[in-house]
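Format is sequence with structure; example below:
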Amino acid sequence: MNLAPETPTTPAEPLLNNILDTLGTEIVSGVIPAGNTFTLNDLSTRFKISRTVAREVMRALEQLGLVLSSRRVGIKVLPASQWDVFDQAIIGWRWKADAQRQLKELSELRFSVEPVAAVIASRHAEKAEAAELIELAESMVELAKEGNSEEFLAADLKFHTLILKASRNDMFLALAPSILHALEGRTLYGAKESIPGPDAVDAHLALAEAIAAGDADGAERAAKVVMADITPCHSC
């Protein structure tokens, strides 16, 4: 999985994606603050594009909740409360603007969702899924001993995605891309060690075994140990 910002699929041309990347980053970083307004002519002049292309850019930003257009006001930048913060493009732009804050918020999301997903997975995981979780956890223990951070991360991403899938909760699974950004972010932005401590690594295996055994309490305890190093800091 790549943490590079993913611009919306429409429009798809490289020029338009580059413009969206520029404007999206400026909006989420506050360079263009909420309440500011601009026009299609402003976009056309700044980026040397036609009004048709400028309109496509405006529509893409509007779909993400970053702006609202009207004939009377023009294109108005909206506050963060209106943004589609789970969209991968916005997550990517927020990484670029303030990686520490984005990691903190995504980690808090993980802490809120994953222990519950683990409990539910202990009730609904299929035998093949439970076996795969154990296999992944065992490989992570060995990869951690070897210090192989790249393969550890790949296994970790599969492990946590599988837990969300095994919960049979489509809404949890829909959060997987955002949650996985938190896992990748700790490595790419150096916010945490690329491989967690021994207790957290071993807890992955305990978590997998609890899910396989249908042990809901054990799954919840192990999930919290796995995430002990990302426990939300409410004073941060």
User: Anything to note?
Assistant: The chain has two domains: 11-81, 98-229. The first strand starts at residue 37 and ends at 38. The chain has a mean pLDDT of 89. The radius of gyration is 21 Å.
